[in-house]
Design brief:
Jelly Rolls, 6-stranded antiparallel beta sheet, FAS1 domain, disordered N terminus, single chain, alpha+beta, disordered C terminus, 15 helices
Length: 604
């Protein structure tokens, strides 16, 4: 049978495939199906009727081989479209799929021979068809088939298919010449397409059966855990749970699917960003898993998200990860003008599926800077990032409090236009320098980072804060060696009209110092083109540490008079680049960077 099936959500969309054509019939013929007259009760079952027809022997062979006989012999009312044209070779092919999935541990209801063949020919309830039929029917596999009563002369069915209809005690059997073609959803299409099998293999590797607590019968508590008298498990996929339910018929998804050639190219490139130190358990497996996950990021799109936020797909698309990350960078996971000449979808082959679309990516259209290779913001006031130095009694040597810097729209009103939270760090001993050590998680290996620190102004004294930064990263023994000072790429130079710069320039190692200006939110380039040997992506602990400490002459005549030792730290920002040239070109573009920073803060 050549049909068109619809997901209810996209029923109004013109889908690929020809309509299922049915020949007209007389209205009186429908009376044969009147179960109120008891006309079906004394009829054979669907299974018995199939067994009685030699032309359906191959179909029967499949039913028996895949353990579907009980379904067609049960009292549940069903409609079956049984293909007389099923060849023995086709039957053997379906059975081979069933045995392979069974050997792989798939339950009967998840077996592709069941879902893509058997259930694709069976619908719930006894469905009668007339010349006026125009209906959408749910098949057992949750696909939707559109039934249209019309002339068979333009279709590929038998000349009078209603002569091939059999009334059964548990439904109606239609005998057709053709095998019902299977209309795959997004995931099923990927699995059936040879050139996408690298992606398919990754998705399949995350399949696992999980306990369905709502459907299981609990029997009590033993050792603090629920014991179930009847455990029901369902097939789940943690990868799709994160990125999009492309296997569900009640969703509308699009997937930009990389071909095997693109997959191999990206894998060879991205694996360099996920190199782990040799002491990390299963380091090679982590590299492989995180590299593959990086490839698929940004490729899943959910139509309902676009509708929820009233987005026009012609103007911009947001992938399924966008709303978790927009506070850090509103440009991440957004694709503007996707169908324009330079858009991500321009020129890609589009394949229609039962629950959306697949775009075949043969170019590598997803820019990694819009997904995993994006700017990393570490809020300096978040205690999970910093360590406070201890004294000999293991007591904190610093006081760290949460500060807020507010910008008003004018001097005469108090309407807040922007506000920034920051860590305010003071030493418990007034004469001591202030310091915190930050551990930065989820850094990548091999990329070139430009590193910035955002500082807040000193509203109390109106003084600059001089500070230095020491850097250390984990080595191949899993240890952090002694931290090294970073030299300021733009050392502070004396300015006649600013007293404090002259004082600083007199310090012998002032080129190791950075100056937070007293009157504004300041974004300071700490280092450019920094590469880390090992990745911290996905690890519980970071592999990069930054020690930030105040700096300046110790004389009391300078402290809190020419400079302040109070650190006011807003953020540590790492921006990655794939090449050194890109990092160098972007390092000093602070005007554009500050615009982006403020935009991100405004959206937060």
């Amino acid at each position: 049978m050549n049909t068109k099936r619809f997901s209810k959500i996209i029923a109004a969309v013109a889908l690929a495939g020809a309509s299922l054509l049915w020949s007209a019939c007389t209205d009186t013929w429908d009376n044969h199906y009147d179960v109120t007259e008891g006309g079906m009760a004394d009829q054979p079952t669907l299974l018995e009727s199939i067994k009685a027809d030699a032309n359906l022997s191959n179909f029967l062979h499949v039913i028996e081989a895949i353990s579907a006989s009980q379904t067609l012999d049960s009292p549940e009312q069903l409609t079956v479209w049984a293909p007389k044209g099923l060849t023995s070779a086709q039957a053997d092919s379906v059975i081979a799929v069933f045995e392979a999935d069974k050997a792989a541990g798939l339950k009967w209801e998840d077996n592709k021979a069941v879902t893509q063949f058997f259930q694709n020919h069976v619908a719930l309830y006894a469905r009668t068809i007339s010349s006026l039929t125009n209906d959408t029917v749910a098949m057992l596999n949750r696909k939707y088939m559109h039934l249209i009563g019309t002339s068979a002369s333009s279709g590929s069915l038998d000349s009078n298919p209603f002569n091939e209809a059999v009334i059964c005690s548990n439904g109606i059997l239609y005998k057709t010449q053709n095998v019902q073609s299977f209309f795959p959803n997004v995931r099923e299409f990927v699995e059936k397409t040879t050139d996408l099998d690298s992606l398919a293999a990754l998705v399949k590797s995350y399949d696992e059966y999980e306990l369905d607590e709502n459907s299981s019968v609990a029997g009590g508590i033993e050792d603090g855990k629920t014991v179930y008298l009847d455990s029901v498990t369902v097939l789940s996929n943690t990868l799709l749970n994160r990125y999009g339910f492309i296997q569900r018929e009640d969703s509308v998804y699009s997937l930009v699917a990389p071909t095997n050639e693109v997959w191999t190219k990206l894998y060879d490139q991205y694996k360099n960003y996920f190199v782990y130190d040799p002491t990390v358990a299963h380091a090679d497996s982590l590299t492989d898993a995180n590299t593959k996950t990086a490839i698929i990021q940004g490729r899943f799109f959910n139509t309902s998200i676009e509708n929820k936020y009233n987005r026009n797909p012609e103007d911009s698309l947001t992938n399924t990860r966008y709303y978790e990350r927009q506070a850090h960078n509103p440009r991440t996971n957004v694709y503007y003008k996707p169908f324009a000449s330079d858009g991500i979808l321009n020129g890609l082959e589009r394949v229609e599926c039962s629950n959306g679309y697949v775009y075949i990516d043969n170019r590598g259209v997803i820019n990694p800077h819009t997904t995993f290779l994006n700017r990393a913001d570490y809020e300096a006031y978040q205690a999970r990032y910093y360590e406070i130095p201890k004294d000999a009694s293991n007591e904190d040597k610093m006081n760290v409090s949460l500060g807020q810097y507010v910008i008003y729209d004018s001097d005469t009103t108090y309407n807040i236009t922007k506000s920034f939270y920051y860590a305010q760090v003071t030493a418990k001993q007034p004469s001591a320098h202030t310091e915190l050590t930050y551990t930065l998680p989820n850094t990548l290996s091999g990329v070139y980072y430009n590193i910035y620190i955002v500082t807040m102004p000193d509203n109390y004294y109106g003084l600059p804060c001089w500070f230095q930064v020491k850097h250390s990263e984990i080595n191949d023994r899993g240890n952090f060696p002694t931290a090294q000072n970073w030299v300021n790429p733009h050392p502070v130079t004396p300015v006649d009209s600013i007293e404090w710069t002259g004082v600083l320039a007199k310090q012998s190692n002032y080129n190791r110092c950075f100056a937070a200006t007293p009157e504004k939110v300041d974004t300071i380039l700490i280092q450019s083109c920094v590469q880390f040997n090992y990745s911290g992506s996905g690890l519980n602990d970071g592999v990069v540490k930054l020690n930030i400490s105040s700096f300046g002459p110790s004389s009391a005549s300078y402290r809190e008079k020419v400079y302040t030792r109070t650190l006011r730290l807003g953020e540590i920002i790492l921006i990655p680049f794939e090449t050194k040239e890109e990092a160098e070109a972007a390092a000093d573009d602070l005007d554009a960077f500050n615009d982006e920073l403020l935009e991100a803060k405004k959206e937060n």
